Amino acid sequence: MINRPAHHSPLRVVFCTTPSVYSDVVLQELLRSSSIELVGIVASTRILSKKRWMWWDAARLVRKTGLRYAAYLWVVTTVYCLARRLLVRDDPVRCYLYENRVPVYTSRDINSGEGIAFVKSLQPDLLLSAHFNQLIGPELLALPVQGCLNIHPGALPEYKGVDPVIRAVDNGEKQAGVTLHRQDAGFDTGTVLATAELAISGGDTLFSLNMRLFLLGTELLLELLSRGGDVPAGALQQPDQRYDSWPDAALVARLRRSGRRLIGVRSFWTCLRGALE
């Protein structure tokens, strides 16, 4: 059971994400918070495109990133969600969503007429995204009173892009950053509200670092909201036009040669076992 302490006037929040182990890390913390009222979820079913066939996008992803990275993404999204659904009885998250009648809208395009109508109907104070692979358009950006925020598992503006963690590790960084920022017309370009860092250990995998960063980013969000009042405007980012797209097979190969893995069986099982308990 998810326990929520009493709180006055929580913010009405719509959470936008791609169903995965990372989205669950964020969602479970949100549901425990007294600062927000989760009123809806937008679950992305997009792989790369909002129009092409899913199997075609899956093949394109393998060509872009190589089989190892595509398999890693498959494990943290599809495999995790399927295993949790099959193995976790009385899932506290699913029970909470059902008992509180929180609607879940699945879409490859949040900016479609249907997607905009769904979000509008919920009258959110805040739109929050984490591990979400769609750019939120102008109409939705202007809708929530408190704006649209994103938890980005990378230090901005240095690490804009699809997978900032693998770039930081490849660059030999000793620290990995997470940024809570406002969303605007571009990917990872909005004003910064809060940042934090954690040490990269020798045993960290891409999976373990992302897990820790998304959890840390959620803590930044909840700390900010617990202060009450309006969400601040945030600080402008220093100009930096670089945006790193999908990591390629060569980058993944360098990671493996350095002795670091994308995901470990033990850490993945520990995550699942935590959901089972």
Number of helices: 10
Strand content: 15-25%
Main sheet overview: 7 strands, mixed
Instruction: Summarize the amount of helix as a percent range.
Output: 40-55%
Mean pLDDT across the residues is 92
Q: What global shape is seen?
A: globular
Structural class: alpha/beta
Rounded to an integer, what's the Rg over CA atoms? 18 Å
Characterise this structure.
With 277 residues, the protein is α/β, with parallel strands linked by helices. It has one domain: 3-Layer(aba) Sandwich (Rossmann fold). It has helices at residues 21-32, 54-65, 67-87, 92-99, 113-122, 138-141, 164-170, 206-226, 249-257, 265-276; strands at 11-17, 36-44, 104-107, 126-130, 148-152, 175-182, 192-199. The chain has a 7-stranded mixed β-sheet, sandwiched between helices. Strand 1 (11-17), helix 1 (21-32) and strand 2 (36-44) form a beta-alpha-beta unit. The longest helix has 21 residues, at 67-87. 36% of the residues are buried.
Keywords:
alpha/beta; 277 residues; globular; Rossmann fold; 10 helices
Task: Indicate the topology.
Blueprint: E1 11-17, H1 21-32, E2 36-44, H2 54-65, H3 67-87, H4 92-99, E3 104-107, H5 113-122, E4 126-130, H6 138-141, E5 148-152, H7 164-170, E6 175-182, E7 192-199, H8 206-226, H9 249-257, H10 265-276
Parallel strand pairs: 1-2, 1-4, 2-3, 4-5
Antiparallel strand pairs: 5-6, 6-7
Helix pairs in contact: 1-8, 2-3, 7-9
Short summary:
With about 280 residues, the protein is of the alpha/beta class. It contains ten helices and seven strands.
